[in-house]
Every structure is written in C-alpha cells, then in structure tokens.
User: Fold this.
Amino acid sequence: MRRPKYAACKLRLRALWMLSALGTSIPRPATAQAVPYARTYAKSNEEVDKALKEMQAYAGQKLPTVEGFVANAEHPLDRYERPFYQFSIDLLPTASGTTVVRVTAKITAWYADRDPSKSAYEALPSNGRLELDLLDRLNEKLGNQPSASASRPDVQPPKPKLDLSSSLSANPLASGKTSAPTASVSAGTAADGPGSEEVTALRGKREAEEKRMRQLTTELQNLQEIQRNQAHPLNLVVVKKTGTPVRARPTAGSSVLFTATADDEFEFLDADGEWIHVQISPALRGYIRRDNLDLPEYVAARQKSPNGAPANAKPEAFRVEREETGVFPGKWEALREKPVKIYTVQRVLQDSQETGGTAKLNFAFSLFQKFSADATSSAPEVHGIVVIFDSADGGIIAATIAIIEQVRGGSLARDDFWKYCYLDPADAFRAAPKPSEKR
Assistant:
C-alpha cells in the first residue's frame, strides 16, 4: 500500500535504523582503523581452516565490556553497551607449503549518549588482545610453534602499545593460559611475493566496504536533515501498535484491508463514532478504531471535547495541509518582500456549495483569528498571514497583522475587513460574508 508522502521519509529512516540493529549496521567512523595481525604456521591451508572452524573462530561473539579490548574510542568507554566482535580471517598459502593466518577483530558497540538522537552503533579499533589470543590458541590447537618471519609495516601492532598487564580471565576467548604478544608479527609474504595479489584484493575489498559505509552514513544524515526541515502536516494520525487492522467500513465485522505497523501515519478525513476515517493513498481509504490511534491537537480539537461538543460534528470544508514562514509570494505592496505566515489549505468536501467563496473567506478568517490569539512575543516576527487554497478553483488571501488586530479588537467590522485584504483572484471569493457577520 502507498503511504502518505510525509510517512515515506520516516519509513525509509526506520529501515536504515533497523540496519544499525542488525549485523549490517551503519557504525559511526572510528577514531582509528583496524590493524591486522598475522602469523605463519607450518600447516596446509586446509588444516588451518579446519582448526579455526573447530575453534568457532568464524562466529561472532559478545564481549562483557569494551575496556581492555579497544585501542581508543571517541567517547568514554563506560558509555558503550552491548559490545560484539567478529574476526575477519584471511588464509594466505605460501610457496613453501606454510600458511599465513591474517586476523583482524571488528568490534562494534552501542554508544548510549545522554542525547538519544546522538546514540548509535560505532565501530571501535581493537588493541590486538583478541587477535593475539586467537593466534595463541590456534598455535596450541595445531600443536606447533609459528614459523619465524619478519614483521611487515601493514601488519604492525597498533599504537599505543598493547597493555596486557590485566588478567585475561575476562577474555571470552581465553583458554586459561596467558600468552605474551610475540616479538614479531609475520606477514607470510613480501609485497612482491606469492601472496601479494591476495593481499591487494583484500585491501581493495576493505576500501570498497568503507566507501559504501560512508555513503550509507551520508544518506542517513541527509534523510534526518530532510525530516527535521520538512513541514509536518497537522492532520496525521499515528498508529499506536503493530497489527492494528485498517477496515473497509466503520464496523468491527467489516473486511480488513491490511494491518498497520506502529508509528504508521495516515491523513485524517473525518470521524464516525468510535471510528476514524483515514486516507491510505490517493485512491484508497479505510477506518481505524479511535483507541488505536494517537490524534494530533488539530484532529483532537475537532472531536468530542470535555465541554460536551458532539463527536460527529460536521467536518470543515477545508483542512490545513502545511504551514510555514517565508517571504510574501506576491507583489502586494503592504507585504511585498516581508516575512509572513503561510497556510496551505486543501479542500475536504467535494460539494462546490460547501467550498465556495463564502466558505473560503470564513475559513481564512478563522486562521487569521487563531494565529492572532496564539501569537506570543517569542514567535518569529511576521508582518502578515497568507492562506493559499490549493485547488483548481482556489486562490490566495492575505492580510497584515495590523488589520487583523483591528478587526479582532472590534475597531473594524468584519465585512469591511476584506476591503483591506489581498484576494487573488477576486472572482474566487465573489460571495462575500453577510453584513450581519461582524466581529
């Protein structure tokens, strides 16, 4: 089913945040890049791979804490929750029949900021403790000592140096034996050796993954910015829980069109007792029980109020679709190039008699009064109000704040008020209010 335009952005944001909760998370950039560790073992590729599988080295595991396992972090370590690690293991066979085991620990954790909007999964650089422990255990598993080899710059231990002074009892990979880091970390092959092509391919793959991660992060930030800047319609109702049925008729036994998900938003059309009539797409409408929805103030004000106003009152002929502050979109000298409050209005009823010139004037006048009554000294300064009727037979009405205050204070009659307003085109508002309708 098609969702309202505003809901589309929110649903896409939800999908990206769901990626963060799964294995394909979108971590924030780390303060240091992961450094691979490598050793050469006098075993075949198949033997080493079998040993690693028996050790379950390819499966990810939880960490009790990030302290003692990460080199450094952008935030205090006690703010990280649900740490998780997974090894990236490369087996590089050499011409001599030995195997280079190259290991990188990828650590992720949820950063819980005091501002929830800044909380997110982050990738943290390993300090080498996990990698060295795995290589030590693999050495014990294979029952041999690693082959002597020289270190290579791209597999050097990270800086600052490892701090293994604390006990390894908290390490979920520890087998009861504490191992000191080896004096040198072997690369297995030189830059121009037999394994150089594999190393180059792995480096290219990692760079591609990092580029994709940056693209996803940028897209997420752009969508968040769009959501913050987008004018939120005033007539959206929000579904409270997942599985809420949207029915074809305002009765419990009518057919279910589909089930909505928590936080889904739909445009309010009108109310029928305990049922809310909503628009699902331009061609589809449905009904949802009132107690399954959160109603915005605009909608709740039109429903039954504490003073006993009827819940099934006749709906208004128009509804405000969007409101914003901007420069006056016309050449009327009274407001030309001045900041104004702009209401974009759409027709709700299809009966032309209910949405004619008089109805437009009445609805615009109600918005003028509402803004004047709600305005406070803290609100952005505007010089007038503009109401745009977004329809084929619509039009634009504008009035200055000064003239609105005069009619609101009683110094100007309502039927004379329109003489000081901007009406474009005038024919769209031909039917003027009756003379008796005065403030």
Observations:
- The first strand starts at residue 37 and ends at 41.
- Residues 318-429 form one domain.
